[in-house]
Amino acid sequence: MIDFEEELKKFHPSLEVDEFEDALRDNDITDLTDIMLEILHQDNPAQ
Amino acid sequence: MKCYNCGSDLSESNFCNACGADVGLYKRIIYLSNRYYNEGLEKAQVRDLSGAKECLRLSLKCNKFNTEARNLLGLVCFEMGDAVDGLSEWVLSTSYQPKKNIAADFLDSIQNNQAKWDTVRQTIAKYNKALEYCRQDSRDMAIIQLKSLLKLNPNMVKGHQLLALLYIDSEEWDKAERSLARAKRIDTNNTTTLLYERAVEEAINHRDETDPEAAKHRKKKTSKDVIEYTSGNETIIQPINNTEHSVAATTALNIAIGLVIGLAIMWYLVLPARVKSAQSNANDSVVEVSTQLTEKNAKIDELQKRVDALEQDNSELISKMEGLTGSDSAVGAAETLMKAAAGYIQNPDDLSGVAQEVIDIDPEFVEGEDTSEAFKTLYALLRESACRRASEEYLEKGLASLKADDYPAAIEQLSKSFELDNNNAEALYNLGHAYRRADEMGRAEQTYSQVITMFPDTEYADGAKEYVNGADAVEGATADEGQAQ
């Protein structure tokens, strides 16, 4: 059986239109290529 | 594909031809990103939006510069009602690739459409308000807010899910089922939707087991309201009556609009032309009738004049006829004359009767211009013969009466004698005597004067003068009477 209160916690307020710059700021934009480059850089700092 | 180190175009080799960097791993990561993108695209095409969202996020985790994946993620988010997430992805996409990027068009289409922008704002505000009501335990208010927001944005999956959750909590299973069906039509494979759906199905099955009547009612309603069929992995629920209703309503609306437009065209274009034409015809008719009326009036006037002229002619003719046929007319005079002539021929001794009739004829007719010569001749003959003789007869009688001192008879007879023959001076003279003897002196003098005037050079005139000039002459005249007689 579904627990209403628990399920309700899964719903979060939506960001207002004016706040989407904050969303951009919070967005983790690190990808695998960044990690790969970082690893390569650590292995070979000369590159 | 470009080299991560120098930016040169890469070949099929795992090393960059320009800088010699090892790009094998980098290529694998890019291929992985593309593969996730393709998978996300496939899922989005079958409306598995949640699955597509996950794949696209993985694709971007591999390669944040995968513009297609980011743009599609923004589109999927927008379709699911997460407008801010969608806008964020498109903004990021345009920042990574400012040129030749469809995300810029998406952003422009929303930002330049104020109505759409307002709808997005209102949807978010209502959703947040509904969530707040839920947390404040004002569930009815939350349901109202959610219904309102779903009218504005029917694709907001989390709105449908929250509404379904509220219905589940209040054990309104049928409503919850319908909300979840709507959510499923937007996003077919959403985990939350599927979870709630299973819970609702279990609850409904349990209810149906305990209350078979409700189950029968529900089946009937379901069979009437929707068609359910499976296409691949999807269960499609299509409303029947609503579609029919909407088609019928649309048809009716179109017909009504057509009628309104038709009436408007009639009212503004056709009707004025018809009215103008009718007015023109009416004016022509009025002019024609007026012309006819004028002609008829002229004819009536002409006829009236002719009638008046004819009436005048008629009255003149009547008066003429009366003048001809009356007792005092020429015809009457002619008739009297002929009667007198006939009487004279039949009985020549009855002079007095013939003479009387001749005397009765008006002398005006005899002397008139229209009187024929024959009439005049006959009149003159009768007057000459019959009247003269009758005058002589009356004179004789009068003298006899005078002698016998019967003065009234003498006066009458002598008067008659003079009347029948105006040239009979003797009769007039003796009439004067008769008046004198009858002591009518005035009339006697008058008669004597008449004798003097009419017969001046006669012995009767001389005798009359004596009676007129003196009273003494009266006695002397008495002696002369014998001579005259």
Outline the structure in words:
The complex is a heterodimer of chains A (47) and B (485). Chain A has one domain. Chain A is 53% helix and 0% strand. Chain A has helices at 4-9, 20-26, 32-43. The longest helix of chain A has 12 residues, at 32-43. The mean pLDDT of chain A is 81. Chain B is 79% helix and 2% strand. Chain B has 21 helices and 2 strands. Chain B has a two-stranded antiparallel ribbon with strand order 1-2. In chain B, helix 8 packs parallel to helix 10 (191-210) and helix 16 (373-403) packs antiparallel against helix 17. Chain B starts with 23 loop residues before the first helix and ends with a helix. The relative contact order of chain B is 0.03. The model of chain B is unreliable at 471-480 (pLDDT under 50). The A-B interface holds A 1-2, 4, 7-8, 10-11, 13-17, 19-20, 23-24, 27, 29-34, 36-37, 47 and B 4-5, 21, 25-26, 29-30, 32-33, 60-64, 82-85, 87-88, 91-92, 117, 120-121, 124-125, 127-128, 131-132, 134-135, 158, 161-162, 165, 168-169, 192, 195-196, 199.
Strands, helices and their partners?
The complex is a heterodimer of chains A (47) and B (485).
Chain A: H1 4-9, H2 20-26, H3 32-43
Chain B: H1 24-45, H2 49-62, H3 67-79, H4 83-96, H5 102-111, H6 114-135, H7 139-152, H8 157-169, H9 173-186, H10 191-210, H11 212-225, E1 226-231, E2 234-239, H12 241-325, H13 330-346, H14 351-360, H15 363-367, H16 373-403, H17 407-420, H18 425-437, H19 441-454, H20 459-469, H21 472-484
Antiparallel strand pairs in B: 1-2
Helix pairs in contact in B: 1-2, 1-3, 2-3, 3-4, 4-5, 6-7, 7-8, 8-9, 8-10, 9-10, 10-11, 13-14, 13-16, 14-16, 16-17, 16-18, 17-18, 18-19, 19-20, 20-21
